[in-house]
């Protein structure tokens, strides 16, 4: 069962974690007797998860840590985001609200200070990202929470 969970985790393609999944799966298999190891490997090879619609080419190094830090400390992110339709990269200050997995890729939702509205960014299009230590000003913080509340109300009514 644990091997199946690890296989699912690998399919979710958590940024830069594939080697960890493979290492842990290998360690779990190695504690089994030879015959059981063969059976477990064969059984796992027959389990598939059809969750990938977007196949990210890769993620910027250490993309998750600043996001998790920002969610933990309630601080902003400074990110450079690649726009494939324009073939440009743009720098933005961003207040994250939610990290989610959907359609085969990882996304972060929150308030974009450049556009002054809620935005969603694909993690595989983030070129660089850092957590900004200083907190939002009271006025910006109130505006951010107001947009967040309206956005959540709109989603609930749909």
Automatic annotation (TrEMBL):
InterPro entries, A to Z: CBASS_pafABC_assoc_protein, WYL_dom
Coiled-coil segments on the chain, per record: none
Superkingdom, taxonomy of origin: Bacteria
Domain WYL: 62-130
PROSITE patterns reported in the protein's UniProt record: WYL
PANTHER family to which the protein is assigned, alphabetical: PROTEIN PAFB, PTHR34580
Name recorded for this polypeptide: WYL domain-containing protein
Organism of this sequence: Clostridium boliviensis
Taxon lineage: Bacteria, Bacillati, Bacillota, Clostridia, Eubacteriales
